[in-house]
Structure formats: structure tokens, C-alpha cells
């Protein structure tokens, strides 16, 4: 229905967006042992059920992709294919996030890992009318020293596709306090900041992410609904929420699309965006997410245009790219 609309995806995890067929092909080429080589079994292992019990159950789907994504060739190919898939549904700009330290199991350096993903973006940009940038994710469960390692080794790529830093993984109340030094260092170096927070019940984490880490955008942020201070600071500071409707229902951030606060946020002047989170794990794409916005949240064409233009401004892209994106709406 909405495939023709121009789209921007600000919250898309690389390892959650791998084609199942590519998993099989790379496993055979790179001699990676899988529990099965049947495509249906692989799809079942990669795609989370719509009725997940929790975020943690959802995150279990990332093990197989990470086992595969341990070579320069696999990282480049998977990144290219993500841009290819996105471009075919008229996504004009995508910010891909991934955690470099998850891809060091077979000896790749952080430098090699980041460069391989950049090479995949470049290839996609050469072939399709799409632009991309990279957000380096730091896994909260790896601790602050690991985050500092990513920040230090990634800084040479700032201005060369790497635009921002992120904290992700299982969310616990108060995690922000463990990463103040790391994210402060990132800001000093020139990284933009987006933080996964308020996805699983802790609106206070959003407040802390903005106040203590200088977050400009929040991944998900659904639970500002249970923290008045978080809601207020997001609204007053114009913090952008990277909302991912299907993922939010799957991980039980909300019970259903009907109870998703997306349109209430929008009507109250909060900056909301439409994103996939994980194309394969959630078995969706941007067209699907836009359809949900129109059909479940009842936005209209003027709403979509407004959200698109707000999303352009929320990107971590340069001004030339922002001007390029505005022409499509």
C-alpha cells in the first residue's frame, strides 16, 4: 500500500536484518556449523514469534546471525543486502546500527569490522538511490570499558559514515549511570548520541539518558508514559523517539497496536519516527511499518509528510543529505 512513499529508517539493527538465505549461503561458504541447513528451520530460528514473552526472548534470535557475521566478506555482503532491500521499498536514507565487538570472534579488528560495513554501504549507494550512515552500538552487558574501546577505535571513522554512538541490549533500571564517562568521551570526540531506553518499563532511564548522557534521540522510549519527568524533558527538548511499532508489540513494550502511544505522542508534539528495528527478527519492512501507522494509528497523508520532514531533521546526516531527502516528499 505505502511502498511508493519515501521513507527513512533511523533505527535498524544490522544483525537483526540478515536474509535467511544469506545465512545458509555464508555458512556453507565459510564452513560455519549450523543446527540445520533447512531454510524453514533457519527462518524459524531467526524470526521471533509475534507473541514473544519478553525482550530477552526476542534477543535470542540474534545468535545465529552473529555466528555468521565474523568475516569482512560477510559483513560487507549483509550490509549491502540491507541497503538493497531497503531501497526496493523506497527507503531513501538508513542509519544502520551494530555492535562491532560482537564480530571479533574470528580475529577481525574493530577497525576491519567497521570498514567492512562501510564498504557494504558504499556498494549499496553506488547501485541504488539510497544513502546510509553507521551508528556504533555498545552492548550494555559488556560494561563501560568495552564501550570506551568501541568509541576510541571508531573515532577515526567519524565523518566517514560513522555518525553516532548507542547503548543497547537487555535494559535494566539505572544502566545509564554506568556509562557516563564513556558517552561523555564520545560526545567530546564528536559522536552524536542515541540511546536505547524506556523500551521495557523504565521511563526513568530515558530521563537519565537525556540528562546524564546528552542523548539527542531515544531508541523506543515507549515508557516515558510512566515517568512524568521523562515525558516532559523529551517534549521540551525536542528529543526524537525512534519508535518501532511491530517490535514494540513483539517485545511486550505495549500489549497491542491499539495501545501503542505513537499517535498520542505525535498529537502532543513529541517527535516520533517510524522504524523497523529488526527486519528479519520481526519479519517486517518499512512498508509494513508505514501501513501500521496509517491503518492502526490512523495517521493521514499530511501527518506522514510532517513526520517524514521531522525525521529528516532528526537524522545524523549532513546538511546536504538532509536537503536531498526533503525533495522526495
UniProtKB/TrEMBL annotation:
Keywords: Hydrolase, Metal-binding, Nucleotide metabolism, Zinc
Residues the entry annotates as binding Zn(2+): 11, 13, 196, 277
Highest taxon of the lineage: Bacteria
GO cellular component: cytosol
Transmembrane segment boundaries: none
Residues binding substrate: 13, 15, 169
Catalytic activity: 2'-deoxyadenosine + H2O + H(+) = 2'-deoxyinosine + NH4(+); adenosine + H2O + H(+) = inosine + NH4(+)
InterPro entries hit by this protein: A_deaminase (IPR028893), A_deaminase_dom (IPR001365), Ado/ade_deaminase (IPR006330), Metal_Hydrolase (IPR032466)
Adenosine deaminase domain span: 6-326
GO MF term set: adenosine deaminase activity; zinc ion binding
Record: active site: 199 (proton donor)
Broad EC category: hydrolase
Listed Gene3D superfamilies: Metal-dependent hydrolases
Cofactor(s) the protein requires to work: Zn(2+)
Site, Important for catalytic activity: residue positions: 220
Entry-linked Pfam families: A_deaminase
Cofactor remark from the record: Binds 1 zinc ion per subunit.
Family, per entry: Belongs to the metallo-dependent hydrolases superfamily. Adenosine and AMP deaminases family. Adenosine deaminase subfamily.
Known function: Catalyzes the hydrolytic deamination of adenosine and 2-deoxyadenosine.
Identification of the protein by name: Adenosine deaminase
Species this chain originates from: Clostridium senegalense
